[in-house]
Amino acid sequence: MGRLIVIEGLDGAGKRTLADGIEAQLANRGCAVSRAAFPRYADDVHAELVAEALRGGHGDLGRSVYGMAVLYALDRRDAAADLRTQLAANDVVLLDRYVASNAAYGAAREHEDAAGRFVEWVRELEVDRFAAPRPQLQILLRVPTRVAAERAAHRERTETGRERDSFESDDALQQRCGRVYAELADRNWWSPWVVLDGTEDVDFASLVDGEILR
Questions:
Q1: Where is the Thymidylate kinase-like domain (predicted)?
Q2: Which region holds residue 14: left if phi is over 0, alpha if psi is between -120 and 50, else beta?
Q3: 144 pLDDT band (50/70/90 cuts)?
Q4: Which tens digits make up the pLDDT trace of 62-99?
């Protein structure tokens, strides 16, 4: 059975770049790797509804913290069987965002911290009720909110189809979300975490050997 590794962080933190580097190191070691990203906008109707709501569709759905969180959770519930298949067929399954993103963003929208009711509700829904596969490691790529916003704005200018949504454009929300992420990592919420400085170069060899494959 493969190892489920999750990369978390703010929009613009550099999660895709980190995943590319990890995958390359794993390939150098002969490991079979599968990758996925949540929400699965192109593959799941719940994620499709999320994308539309984040851009003002479906009335007041985008303003409903719990309504949006349920859609995110249903996207992962729909993906659970495939995740288990990929874990059986690969050494590592690498995810860009997972359950903790739902906890962090929802808590930030509710102006709660990691010890608040919302984070516990997400755990009850996604972990206890939907039985989401548990990660062996969650990696928080931590960057200042200003840096993440600059990167997201640059991506919006230079990449087709990467326009920022209402969450990505809300600087205050991103700041609160960053604090909740840090608290989740400090608590090793649900599984072990490691925190990386997203403004510095990553030693991918040490990360893979010391954390991902240990």
A1: 7-190
A2: left
A3: confident
A4: 999 999 999 999 999 999 999 999 999 999 999 999 99
Instruction: Give the contacts of 198 (CB within 8 A, at least 6 positions apart).
Output: 9, 13, 14, 18, 141, 142, 143, 147, 148
Domain count, the chain: 1
- Do the beta carbons of residue 109 and residue 135 sit within 8 Å? no
Q: At 96, is the secondary structure helix, strand, or coil?
A: strand
Residues in Cβ contact with 176 at an 8 Å cutoff, skipping those fewer than 6 apart: 108, 111
Contact 35, 19 (CB under 8 A): yes
As beta bridge partners, residue 92 has 3, 33
Cβ–Cβ < 8 Å for 62, 90: no
Q: What is the tens place of the pLDDT at every residue in 39-62?
A: 999 889 999 999 999 888 999 999
Q: What are the φ and ψ backbone dihedral angles of 152, each rounded to 5 degrees? A: -65, -40
Instruction: Assess contact for 150 and 11: CB atoms under 8 A.
Output: no
Whichever domain contains 50, its CATH number is 3.40.50.300
Residue 137, CA distances (Å) to 34, 36, 74, 98, 194 in order:
15, 15, 22, 11, 8
